[in-house]
Amino acid sequence: MPPITKHIGSILLVLGLIVGVLFVLQVLPHVEPARAATRTATTCNQPDVQAAIDAAADGDTVQIPAGSCTWTTNVGWMNKNIILQGTGIDQTIITADGSYGLYIATSDSAKGTFRITGMTFTDTNPASVVIAITTEGNPGIVRGWRVDHLKFNYSINQRNGIIIRGVTYGLIDHNQFNWGMDLAIHIAAYNASDGCSTDNPAGGYIALQPV
To answer: Where are the domains of the chain?
Structure first.
């Protein structure tokens, strides 16, 4: 076969392969990538917010509407990379009247990229915790969460604001603390369930007040 004819034949073979691949791609079923959803709670009441969280999957945003609601039990989740978002400071106002306002647990090291933002927490109940983030005995490192653009309106009585237990890293930024007594941010190195000795069940800790 002459060189020119041979070269043209190679080009046609390559073009034929390309056309074949494009044809296969056209006839194969087209799979849409999973899309993150926004799930808006019916109200800011605890059962409605918890129901929206329970229905959420990784990547979803749970929107809490504007309003003023009292939570007598905590809202929370375990092992979900979601965003919990209010309408804004002093627009979504939560009176956290239980032992915890929010309780977030991560036993899976890949489930630490959650976010809490855009609301006000308040109460007059002493000795409560507003937000708890715990690794629930996970021996690995949990990282990536963010707590931002919140208002903690607790000018009287004693309580913990944000308490973090376990080997977990995140960002706490752009928050307002109208604070009375006790620790606004409490970082504990371990839980008792993380294998600490019985002599020191709380583990070593660093306690920080807002500047």
So the answer is: 1-31, 38-208
